[in-house]
């Protein structure tokens, strides 16, 4: 099999005439004397669904934290739609178009489903602080528009009828879907999903695959996911990057990745060990 250069940029043909949604050039971060991520070169097409996989401790969540500016890189550059993100903080990165979900669900469980989505819509709320305090007409107009938008987003996942329920009372799979809806409410160009199928049964995972495709097609955004469920990764991702000890060791299509000897060794160890 022809080996792929881990530093090679791979983007779907339909996106090659557009600036990548995200492009990382030599990105790396050190914690004290430990290099957690090194020479991370990666680009994601504007409507691509891609996967970032690797063994536990490979640095995948650290990469997500770099992309969302939870961490500032020690070296390298990250471009969002061609714009340098240097010195951006997490709030600025979100407003610029990066949204994420988390491995451990982080909902406001005492609030309603609708209110969780409304929190995600804060970037679109068009009223001043005084208007909110005094409950002026502009505030109520903005609230009405935002609530209608929240229900529209919930409808995509057939969750509009759950809008008044407490988020913490939802079944596990529905909480996962709600977290994705809240991320979409920030109007992203790049959606990062951290183990979205964690804890799901095969039926829920199959539904999730359909929903991820629906999101990409409906919103025309790029999606990058970390996932250990290989059926999901191989079934939905167009391109996959494999991380091991903080470095990309392979990139390619699902068929190329699952037969790559470096990937097999990273997951299973060397023959005889």
Question: Would you give an account of this structure?
Answer:
The mean pLDDT is 87. The strands form 2 sheets. The protein has a 6-stranded mixed beta sheet with strand order 6-7-8-3-9-10, with helices on both faces. The radius of gyration is 20 Å and the shape is globular. The chain is α/β, with parallel strands linked by helices and 273 residues long. The two termini are 24 Å apart. It contains 10 helices and 10 strands.
Low-confidence stretches: none
Q: How does the overall form come out from the CA principal axes?
A: globular
If strands are numbered along the chain, what order do they take across the biggest sheet? 6-7-8-3-9-10
What order do the helices and strands follow? EEEHEEHEHHHHEHEHEEHH
First and last CA, distance:
24 Å
Strand content: 15-25%
- What integer value in Å does the Rg equal? 20 Å
Q: Mean pLDDT score, rounded?
A: 87
Task: Give a concise summary.
With 273 residues, the chain is α/β, with parallel strands linked by helices.
Protein topology:
Layout: E1 22-31, E2 34-44, E3 49-53, H1 60-67, E4 75-80, E5 83-84, H2 90-96, E6 98-100, H3 113-120, H4 129-134, H5 137-156, H6 172-184, E7 190-194, H7 202-219, E8 222-226, H8 230-236, E9 239-244, E10 247-252, H9 254-258, H10 261-268
Parallel strand pairs: 3-8, 3-9, 6-7, 7-8
Antiparallel strand pairs: 1-2, 1-4, 4-5, 9-10
Helix pairs in contact: 3-5, 3-6
Task: Give the tags.
single chain; 273 residues; alpha/beta; six-stranded mixed beta sheet; four-stranded antiparallel beta sheet; 10 helices; 10 strands; 37% helix
């Amino acid at each position: 099999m022809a080996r792929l250069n881990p530093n090679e940029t791979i983007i779907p043909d339909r996106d090659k005439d557009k600036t990548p949604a995200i492009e990382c050039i030599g990105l790396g971060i050190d914690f004290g004397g430990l290099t957690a991520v090194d020479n991370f070169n990666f680009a994601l097409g504007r409507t691509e669904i891609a996967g970032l996989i690797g063994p536990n401790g490979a640095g995948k969540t650290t990469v997500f934290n770099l992309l969302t500016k939870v961490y500032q890189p020690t070296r390298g550059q990250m471009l969002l739609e061609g714009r340098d993100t240097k010195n951006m903080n997490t709030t600025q990165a979100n407003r610029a178009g990066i949204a994420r979900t988390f491995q451990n669900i982080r909902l406001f469980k005492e609030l309603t489903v609708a209110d969780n989505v409304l929190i995600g819509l804060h970037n679109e709320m068009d009223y001043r602080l005084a208007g909110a305090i005094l409950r002026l007409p502009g505030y109520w107009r903005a609230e009405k528009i935002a609530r209608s938008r929240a229900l529209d987003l919930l409808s995509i996942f057939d969750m509009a009828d759950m809008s008044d329920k407490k988020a913490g009372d939802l079944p596990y799979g529905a909480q996962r879907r709600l977290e994705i809806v809240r991320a979409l409410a920030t109007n992203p160009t790049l959606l990062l999903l951290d183990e979205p199928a964690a804890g799901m049964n095969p039926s829920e995972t199959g539904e999730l695959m359909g929903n991820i495709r629906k999101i990409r097609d409906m919103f025309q955004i790029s999606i990058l996911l970390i996932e250990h469920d290989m059926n999901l990764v191989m079934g939905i991702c167009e391109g996959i990057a494999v991380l091991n000890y903080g470095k990309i060791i392979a990139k390619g299509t699902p068929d190329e990745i699952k037969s790559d000897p470096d990937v097999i060794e990273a997951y299973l160890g060397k023959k005889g060990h």
